Amino acid sequence: MGLEMKSDGPSGRWMAVLRDAVVAGLLLAGLGMVANAVRPDGISVVAQNEYEILVPCPEPLGEVYPLEPNELLAAGTLVVDAREPAEHAAWHWPDAANVPFDFLDPVPADTVAEFIRTGARQIAVYGDGADPDSGRELARELAGRGARNVYFVPGGAPRLMSLSGGTP
Predict the structure, then answer these.
(1) CA 105 to centroid of chain Cα atoms
(2) What's the CA gap between 82 and 97, in Å, rounded?
(3) Which strands sit side by side in the sheet containing 97-98, from one edge to the other?
(4) Does the N-terminal or the C-terminal CB of the chain have fewer CB atoms within 10 Å?
């Protein structure tokens, strides 16, 4: 003869479980608020100062200029493809180096130094041709990190492919 809980069937049991979960959640939230309030370095419930919700990415500082595709053939031009390796493998400008541009991850310093050491008269970068163009953004990053005479090809790989007939 123990105590038995009277139940109104399966829906009554689910309602009791839901009620108990809500009560437990409210009690634990209240306990957390009280514990936070008594701490000298507690977290404020309402922000005292405005804050940014997006993490700022490093801003490339270099200034770059557009370069027409026919200027890629100039002597002393280092051509860089800013697209992903699979896109580069499918089609790329002859002898183009592949340095995939990532908007959140900067180009390694040794890659930038390697480009500078080549002694090229100019660095021409092309990308996916989207907006923003990965080629233009990579060119800005290279210029901002010390490379000189850095240009980008407006329209990127799609423009170059259309001018070359789609053959590497």
Answers:
(1) 7
(2) 9
(3) 65-66, 150-152, 122-126, 77-81, 97-98
(4) N
Q: Which of 164, 161, 156 is nearest to 124 (CA)?
A: 156
Structure tokens that stand for 26 in this block: 């409210």
Amino acid letter, residue 139: A
Q: pLDDT per position in the chain (168 positions), as tens?
A: 455 555 566 778 889 999 999 999 999 999 999 988 898 888 887 777 776 666 656 565 789 999 999 898 898 999 999 999 999 999 999 999 999 999 888 899 999 999 999 989 999 999 999 999 999 999 999 999 999 999 999 999 999 999 877 655
Q: In this structure, what are the phi and psi dihedrals at residue 65, rounded to the nearest 5 degrees? A: -130, 155
Q: Which H helix or E strand runs over 31?
A: helix 10-38
**Residue 94 is encoded by which pair of tokens?**
């002859």
Query: Token pair for residue 36?
Result: 């936070």
3-state secondary structure of 107: coil
